[in-house]
Amino acid sequence: MKRILMALMLVAGCGAGGDAGDKADNTAAGAVQAAGLTGLYEGGATTRPNQMCVIDKGKGEAAFGLVVWGANLHSCSGAGSVKQEGDKLRLTMAGDQSCTLEARIEGGVVTLPASVPEGCAYYCGAQAKLGGASLSRKEATVEGAMKAKDLVGEPLCGGISGAP
Question: Which of 49, 66, 73, 94 could serve as 42's disulfide partner, Cβ 3.0–4.6 Å?
């Protein structure tokens, strides 16, 4: 009888430990993905490039800042949180209007969707648009991310917790 009880406790213990281990593995995988996004991304014209910075905040969370330039110095800009799911990035602006961009990332290149939700227009000047912008990773460090500049030349990711 003692052997049966011992065997049942071992089996029950193994099952519980497996679930906890799987959850820990999934959390770690999310953190690795977010950390893998950290850096400076650029695209567009070389005189005034579109820029995005991404900084890992730990525990699978990352934050971003984005500036996309249009005609006559009009621009789109915003910041928020980013989550990666495979080759998809969900960029959610933190601001007065709802704007979530379902971008793609492949080979270090982030491509914003051709059409964006209506709320995203709030983040853009009259002659600028987010749709279809493409940004390539130039640097993969927090220091590199800090090279991205906002509309007035300040660090785009300067206000992000964890940034230097």
Answer: 49
